[in-house]
TrEMBL record:
Sequence ranges assigned to domain Glycosyltransferase 2-like in this UniProt record: 45-162
Transmembrane segments: 6-25, 307-325, 331-349
Signal sequence range: none
Compartment annotation: Cell membrane
Organism: Mucilaginibacter angelicae
Entry superkingdom: Bacteria
Keyword annotations from UniProtKB, A to Z: Cell membrane, Glycosyltransferase, Membrane, Transferase, Transmembrane, Transmembrane helix
Gene3D superfamilies, sorted: Spore Coat Polysaccharide Biosynthesis Protein SpsA, Chain A
Protein name stated in the entry: Glycosyltransferase
Pfam families: Glycos_transf_2 (PF00535)
Xref: CDD domains: Glyco_tranf_GTA_type (cd00761)
Keyword Amino-acid biosynthesis: no
Length: 377
């Protein structure tokens, strides 16, 4: 009886969620459909880099050839030990719009990336700033269209959902499930609604008006947050400033992680922070992932009666339809949802327990103590 009612609840929830997400995605405008604009405001593109030699050249090539005349590129080299400095020097000689700032030490009480972005802000004077990651590949018209949209809509903050490109089909299938979980939690299509608490902050593309950034207290207010991009969006929304999201398919692309191992390690940086450094909240989050993502279809197919298995089949079909409709997903990603749920739940739990045991996190060859992250020292 318990399995039956559990199945009924999940059946109804799954169908409703699929419709809800599809309707939500339809509300997010595509940057590709926005017009090109002349006479755009001054823009500083601020990119923090640390040991990025593998992806940096391709990313800089794209940002150096954008269709935007009134801009500067401020690249902040944060204590890199590989060929990053050499690559930046070569680019700065070829492209006069690039300015390189080098950081040799990390101030106390700061995470490396947050400090680097803040230093980029201090080096800028432009009316608008785009905080972007060092592995983003931009279409030449992407930034022009995005800034034009932000100005036309009188926004203070605009984010863009990047197109995730991966060489691993299995990794892409996990991304698809992770995307469903993130979209369900963040509801980015509601970020523009002043009556909604939903907000959006995306490290790949955070375009913010200078006055708005200063009003929320800059990165100095979130200097110890590993999830600085999400926090930036939340602070802007809490201040009552205008925010929106665009979809960047074909215009803002990145290879987020190259394999499942990298994704698992990446989860370590943000998962505990998202849970506000509470193991109780982590356990709640993990149980939620298991009960709503990983376990439903396996339990229903293996242990269910005919009625339950019919519900599971319908759920699977709806997942397949959703995956087929929402690019760049493939229909068969629906079969990977249980695996993805187990994978993410395990790494969320592992990352949080590891952080507690080690007393902090290692990220980009730097250690940040848990007391520091909590602001207790």
């Amino acid at each position: 009886m318990i399995l039956f009612w559990y199945s009924v609840i999940l059946f109804v929830t799954t169908l409703a969620l699929n419709f809800y997400l599809l309707i939500g995605f339809k509300q997010i405008k595509q940057v590709s459909r926005q017009p090109l604009v002349d006479n755009l405001p001054p823009l500083a593109i601020i990119i923090a880099v640390r040991n990025e030699e593998e992806d940096l050249e391709k990313a800089l090539q794209s940002v150096c050839h954008i269709n935007y005349t009134n801009h500067r590129i401020i690249v902040v080299n944060d204590r890199s030990t590989d060929r990053t400095a050499e690559i930046l020097q070569n680019f700065s000689l070829r492209y006069p719009q690039i300015r390189v700032t080098t950081i040799t030490t990390l101030p106390d009480g700061w995470l490396g990336k947050n400090n680097a972005l803040y230093q980029g802000y201090l080096s800028s004077t432009e009316q608008w700033m785009l905080f972007a990651d060092a592995d983003i590949v931009f279409h030449p018209d992407a930034i022009n269209k995005a800034v034009g949209y932000a100005v036309k809509q009188q926004l203070d903050h605009l984010t863009m959902l990047p197109e995730l490109i991966s060489r691993s089909a299995i990794l892409n299938s996990v991304f698809a499930t992770l995307s469903i979980m993130l979209m369900t939690s963040m509801k980015p299509w509601e970020a523009k609604n002043p009556k909604s608490k939903a907000s959006s902050g995306i490290g790949a593309f955070n375009l913010v008006r200078r006055t708005a950034y200063e009003k929320i207290g800059t990165h100095a207010r979130i200097k110890l947050r590993p999830d600085d991009d999400l926090q930036l969006g939340q602070l802007i929304k809490k201040e009552g400033l205008r925010q929106d999201v665009l979809a960047g398919k074909g215009y803002v692309c990145l290879e987020w992680y190259k394999n499942l191992g990298e994704l698992g390690r990446g989860v370590q940086k943000n998962s505990f922070a998202v849970a506000k450094y509470s193991l109780v909240q982590v356990i709640i989050n993990v149980l939620n992932m298991l009960l709503t993502v990983a376990l439903p279809m396996p339990l229903m197919f293996i242990f269910g009666n005919t009625a339950i298995r019919i519900m599971a089949t319908v759920m699977l079909i709806f997942h397949m339809i959703y995956m087929e409709i929402v690019p760049p997903n493939k229909w068969w990603y629906a079969f990977m949802i249980p695996f993805s749920g187990f994978f993410l739940a395990w790494h969320f739990l592992k990352a949080s327990v590891t952080t507690v045991v080690k007393g902090g996190i290692y990220w980009r060859e730097s250690f940040y103590s848990l007391k520091m992250l909590k602001g207790e020292e």
